[in-house]
Design brief:
Belongs to the TonB-dependent receptor family. This protein is mainly beta and 759 residues long. Helix content is 6%, strand content 48%. It is built from 7 helices and 38 strands. The strands form 6 sheets. It has a 22-stranded antiparallel β-barrel. Strands 1-7-8-5-6 form a 5-stranded mixed sheet. A 4-stranded antiparallel sheet has the order 15-14-37-36, with no helix packed on it. The N and C termini lie far apart (53 Å).
């Protein structure tokens, strides 16, 4: 064997050893292109032929313009960029998060049309950040860098580089669980160079927030990044509601300039807040329930009591390694370990109807009706683990190019619950002037209230992107999941169990008639077995909860996507546009009561949904100084396969949604170069009224949401100052709702000032 051949073999062995040796968390992103490929790269084929090495959090060069088509997805098993993915993906980039001072995930997602919430979320409520995408449940479909974000808590953006919403069933990428789409948060990672940033914000309702970000390059190949945050505030226009959070994140990067790289990331987030479960829905003369604050109750009225609390503590440890073994083969592996704890108790208002409604509408002050016995209380402790090992091969068979990805995805989550037992708790509030302070009632978490649920999912996946000609490519993906969930109580008896084995396929045709544009058609299918949401369920009931039961054979939900769309770039890729038409057919849609328990008593264990619509986005720079982020969606949803509600409008599906944010750099017009940069920005968010859910009876109606927002900022060398004004019209908006029971009002007009420094 020649010396050069031996060197190549030795190098290959070393890279394989490193890739498998750091098995506590290997992983990364798409590899380099086939260096032997001499064909011209196509816009729709960048994952195959663009020779770019990247690390987590990096974006393509033209992404700096704000063209989110160029956003690189930090999910190794998916195509490289938004442009390459034949499915609707909304991106909230770092620039938009900073300009809007969006401090929580739900604030950032206000820029994405077609997302709604159930009562409790957003202000730190019972289910934390749990969203609906196009009216379909996304309770546990939360990811960071492509790995499951286990646990139930309010997520802060202090360690987020960007947020992506992948719309439509995506089981071929993410496995059992998602039916409407997934939300992925790209975390901040260490990079080459050194930077030091600190921001201090002061806002309405005594908001006080600080956030620091330090990146330190230790050597050419090693860097360390540290982020920290504290946030203390009362929630504006909501009496006695607070949102306090503290967090730290550390990322160590090794191999920044090498073909084998490793990121080790630890993130901690602690919350200590007073939760807001909203206000009652009131039944009016037409028989429809609507939020009572839209019919005479002061918007700041809340029923939070002094013994209510939402305390959470979440730790994530993630390790990711990527190794280019050869020019044509790359090995990746991601691993995450999560430990989470939460203690929660909230007051649960219920609806006002009959004599209660008549008394209130005549100026009276009726007694408040309660749901869930006055409010649930529980202590939660759990942990989750996930590992994804994947190989990517790029090669040719004749004139056809292949980009094959195959691997195994294993995840497990275990959740312990202790349900609270109250002593001397008095439920005696009235609707107009509720009592806040009570002598401390007793709360214990007895062993008799113990519940345990767990879920295991083993998935095998394979995809092939086939480039037939420069203009035509085919993309096929298949995943097989073996899912099992179990459930037990402290009362004895056998452990309950459910199993489900399913395929999640998808197929796409992509045609690029010109370099600037591509057209695609996609079909995708996902499954959601009972028990996938054990970390996010409010209660694990032995008889009706969304948990395993030996006596019942719960068929998984199934969701099918049909989507036709186009993605195009303009002005030398500074501006990107997308247009899509879609239909999602979901069968067996489980829904839940106010305790979070699965509704029973129906023959098919649920109902169906058919969601149709269209979506349009325009993002990037129109001129050198003018930038825009905008999107619009139209949705029409129907209930199907229901014995009592077929033909009704699907709940939590607003027909019209839009979000627009535009900024203009005034520096060239108003300032000399020695006076820094001056920028103004503003926009609006709108969602039309919709039927509250998840109940499908169409008996509770939510009004439209509208918010007009703006900001002005000035930067001079290392220093910056900004001022934000939100909901300038002081419109009464709602964060979330739950059927005919309750709704959570949002803040009215608020202001936020920020000062920062960077070196």
């Amino acid at each position: 064997m020649s010396h050069s051949a031996w060197s190549v073999l030795k190098t290959t062995k070393v890279r394989l050893a490193v890739a498998f040796g750091v098995s506590v968390g290997i992983g990364a992103t798409d590899g380099e292109a086939d260096a032997q490929d001499t064909q011209q790269p196509l816009p729709s084929d960048s994952a195959i032929s663009l020779p770019a090495v990247r690390v987590h959090g990096q974006t393509a060069p033209d992404a700096g313009s704000g063209n989110t088509n160029s956003q690189i997805l930090n999910i190794s098993r998916m195509p490289a960029t938004v442009r390459d993915t034949p499915q609707t993906i909304n991106v909230i980039p770092q620039e938009l998060i900073k300009e809007q001072r969006a401090f929580t995930l739900d604030q950032a997602l206000a820029n994405v049309p077609g997302i709604t919430l159930s009562t409790g979320e957003g202000n730190g409520g019972l289910n934390g950040d749990q969203f609906r995408i196009r009216g379909l449940q996304a309770r546990q479909d939360m990811y960071t860098d492509g790995l499951k974000d286990f646990g139930t808590y309010t997520r802060d953006t202090f360690n987020m580089e960007s947020v992506q919403v992948i719309k439509g069933p995506s089981g071929e990428y993410f496995g059992a669980g998602n039916v409407g789409g997934v939300i992925n948060q790209s975390l901040k990672h260490a990079h080459s160079g050194e930077s030091y940033d600190y921001d201090q914000a002061f806002g309405s309702a005594s908001q006080f927030r600080g956030a620091g970000d330090i990146n330190y390059q230790i050597s050419n190949d090693v860097a360390l990044r540290v982020n920290g945050m504290y946030n203390r505030q009362n929630v504006a226009d909501r009496d006695h509601v607070t949102a306090n959070r503290y967090g730290t994140a550390v990322d160590l990067a090794v191999g920044l300039q090498s073909k084998t790289s490793w990121h080790l990331t630890w993130q901690w987030l602690n919350g200590d807040s007073k939760p807001d479960y909203g206000v009652p829905m009131i039944q009016l003369a037409d028989g429809i329930y609507r939020p009572i604050t839209s019919h005479g109750l002061a918007r700041n009225t809340s029923y939070t009591r002094n013994f209510d609390r939402d305390r959470s503590d979440v730790h994530n440890l993630t390790s990711a390694v990527k190794s280019e073994i050869t020019r044509w083969f790359t090995l990746t592996n991601d691993t995450r370990l999560t430990k989470y704890e939460r203690e929660y108790t909230a007051t649960t208002p219920s609806s006002c109807s009959g004599s209660c409604a008549a008394q209130f509408l005549n100026g009276g002050n009726p007694a408040l009706a309660y749901g869930a016995g006055g409010g649930a209380a529980y202590r939660q402790k759990g942990w989750g683990a996930q590992n994804i090992l994947m190989g990517q091969a790029r090669f040719k068979t004749g004139f056809i190019k292949h980009d094959i990805k195959a691997g195994v995805d294993v995840n497990y989550v275990n959740d312990d619950r202790y349900y609270g037992s109250w002593a001397h708790r008095v439920n005696n509030q009235t609707i107009r002037d509720p009592q806040y302070a009570y002598a401390n009632p007793g709360l214990t978490f007895p062993r008799s209230g113990f519940r345990n649920a767990d879920a295991t999912d083993v998935g095998l996946f394979f995809s092939d992107r086939i480039q037939i000609t420069k203009k035509l490519s085919l993309f096929g993906t298949a995943r097989w999941d073996a899912f099992k969930s179990t459930y037990a109580t402290d009362t004895g008896g056998s452990r309950q169990q459910q199993k489900s084995d399913r395929w999640s396929p998808s197929g796409s045709i992509v045609y690029s008639p010109v370099e600037m544009a591509s057209f695609y058609f996609t079909f995708a299918r996902s499954y959601k077995p009972v028990g996938t949401d054990v970390a996010s369920m409010v209660t694990n009931s032995a008889t009706t909860g969304e948990v395993a039961q030996n006596s019942k054979n719960f068929s998984p939900q199934r969701s099918d996507l049909f989507e036709f769309g186009s993605k195009a770039d303009f002005f030398q890729k500074r501006l990107g546009a997308t247009l899509s038409f879609f239909q999602i057919n979901e069968s067996n849609s489980f829904y839940y009561d106010e305790n979070g328990d699965l509704i029973t008593g129906f023959a098919d264990q649920g109902s169906g949904r058919r969601i149709r619509g269209a979506e349009l986005t325009l993002n990037g720079k129109i001129t050198k100084n003018w930038q825009i982020f905008s999107s619009y969606s139209y949705m029409d949803g129907k209930v199907t396969n229901s014995a009592t509600a077929s033909g009704n409008e699907a709940p939590q599906v607003p027909h019209n949604n839009f979000s627009v944010w535009t900024s203009y750099d005034l520096t060239d017009r108003l300032l000399s170069k020695d006076w820094g940069r001056l920028k103004v920005a503003g926009g609006a968010q709108y969602a039309s009224g919709y039927w509250a859910g998840p109940d499908v009876s169409n008996t509770a109606r939510m009004p439209y949401n509208f918010s007009l927002n703006g900001t002005v900022s000035w930067e001079l060398k290392h220093y910056r100052v900004s001022f934000n004004a939100n909901n300038l019209t002081d419109h009464l908006n709602y964060a979330s709702s739950f059927s005919s029971g309750r709704a959570v009002p949002l803040s009215g007009r608020t202001f936020l000032g920020n000062v920062g420094v960077s070196f």
